[in-house]
Amino acid sequence: MIVLVINAGSSSLKFQLYQMKDESVLAKGRVERIGMESAIVTIEPTGKPEVREVREILEHTTAIRKVLDMIVHPEHGVLKSVSEIDAVGHRVVHGGESFSSSVLVTEEVKREIKRLFDLAPLHNPAHMLGIHAVEANMPEVPQAVVFDTAFHQTMPPVSYLYPIPMVLYKKHKIRRYGFHGTSHAYVSEQAAKFLGRPLEELKLVTCHIGNGASCTAVDGGKSIDTSMGMTPLEGLMMGTRSGDIDPAIVPFTMAKEDLTLSEVNSMLNKHSGLLAISNIGSDMREIAEAMEAGDRNAALAFEMYEYRLRKYIGSYAAAMNGLDAIVFTAGVGENSALLRAAVCRGLSFLGIEFDEEANARRSPDDRAITKPGSRVQVLVIPTNEELVIARDTYGLILNRNDVE
Ligand SMILES: Nc1ncnc2c1ncn2[C@@H]1O[C@H](COP(=O)(O)OP(=O)(O)O)[C@@H](O)[C@H]1O
Ligand SMILES: CC(=O)OP(=O)(O)O
Ligand SMILES: [Mg+2]
User: Fold this and answer.
1) Is 379 found in the same domain as 273?
2) In Å, what is the CA distance from 251 to each residue of 19, 232, 257, 264, 286?
3) pTM
4) Where is Mg(2+) bound in this sequence (predicted)?
5) Would you name the residues annotated as active-site residues?
6) Where would I find the beta strands (DSSP E) of 125-183?
7) How buried is residue 361: exposed, middle or buried, by Cβ count under 10 Å (0-12/13-18/19+)?
8) N or C: which end of the chain has fewer CB within 10 A?
9) Using CA atoms, how far apart are residues 3 and 306, in angstroms rounded to an integer?
10) ipTM score of the complex?
11) Whose C-alpha lies nearest to ligand 1, atom 18?
């Protein structure tokens, strides 16, 4: 079975094409700058050179059409015909309280994702465009949706409720949902495998540190708390998002700076975090380079980022009354030895015996960056959200065929 995995954003669309027989990636790629005159389409067919094209792509239906054309292109394509694609799986960021696992797309599922637009205005409308674009180009192909929030549906009320009037939860579902669940679930399972212990016995803190960042307390394989909340703005300091701040700052800033709601929203989501403090950028590589060169703002941004992450890890050890391992994953977590070192040095009281050398030299197969006897292990595990989406989609299709 061949599964196409799609992660549609408002102006971009990433994809991976899987042969499920051996879970191999046939091709992957992305369309960037959708809606602009010079959109960039990139495809990396496995075993062949990358192909790049710049052209006008004004909306998602055209973007998917272009991706499909490239997949079946006589030279750099990997399939003979689009009809070889058996199913499409989409990443959907917000599943609210309605979805605690992945589902096949139906009219009802689409209505529900639409109802959640309010809760994830930056993400869900774009995912819906992706679903419609696939319908327009491949009307016969079944689609599945895999939610970032699903894994966190096991959180108890004590961690998912906000201490604000209960009526707001009842009327508007204002509560904490958490995100990056696919990634937190995947690296938890991988960590248990690596440690050679049943997941049900482990207390883990998984740190998904990419552009967006969140950490999760995974107790016995279940998410019991996570740093993102009703939206992906709460929690850790991120590339351009503030993470936790005093909510009183919102009305105060609106009054003092004469800002509209949408302007404050944009300030907290797009102009805060590493970018705001460093005045350089949101990319950890740029911050590290500038620090190296002696830039004080970059150093302060890095210290705040690390300090806030370390406090969350400590609080989750307290939430679970114990800790067996910390897992680092995603762009920054997998690649920034500097960040991992700073976090681990500051958590030695937990019984972390950090292995500086393993951390610095880490090759793709290395996992542990603590010494063998360390009471708390620290692991680096590459995430693979696309593979989980492909597997879930495959499973749902097999199940459906069984039922029919
Ligand atoms: N070698 C590296 N060192 C430090 N940070 C890195 C490195 N490579 C990538 N990153 C960071 O990873 C981030 C992207 O992470 P990723 O998980 O791909 O994010 P997203 O899925 O949210 O786009 C970049 O913003 C960059 O800061
Ligand atoms: C939910 C979220 O923050 O996603 P991303 O990290 O892809 O922005
Ligand atoms: Mg990501």
Assistant:
1) yes
2) 51, 20, 10, 9, 32
3) 0.94
4) 7, 385
5) 148
6) 143-147
7) exposed
8) C
9) 38
10) 0.97
11) 331
Cβ of 239 below 6 Å from ligand 1: yes
- Closest atom, ligand 2, to C-alpha of 148: 1
Write out pLDDT tens, residues 310-333: 999 999 999 999 999 999 999 999
At residue 329, what is the residue type?
T
Tokens of 262: 């949408």
Sheet containing 325-329: give its strands across: 222-226, 213-219, 203-209, 325-329, 377-380
Tell me how far CA of residue 325 lies from CA of 191, 367, 369, in angstroms: 8, 12, 11
> What are the Cα distances from residue 90, in Å, to 148, 209, 238, 253?
11, 21, 24, 37
CB distance 283 to ligand 1 below 6 Å: yes
393 found inside a domain: no
Least confident window among 4-13, 233-242, 291-300: 4-13
Residue 334 placed within a domain: yes
Ligand 1, atom 24: closest residue by C-alpha: 283
CATH number of the domain that 48 lies in? 3.30.420.40
- Closest-lying ligand 2 atom to the alpha carbon of residue 330: 6
Q: pLDDT tens across 22-49, in order?
A: 999 999 999 999 988 899 999 999 999 9
- Taking CA atoms, 271 is separated from 32, 144, 162, 308, in Å, by 21, 34, 25, 18
Q: Whose CA is nearest to atom 7 of ligand 1?
A: 335
Annotated binding-site positions for ATP: 14, 208-212, 283-285, 331-335
Query: How many angstroms is it from 397 CA to the middle of ligand 1?
Result: 33
End of a domain among 86, 117, 147?
A: 147
**Smallest CA separation from ligand 2 atom 7, residue:** 212
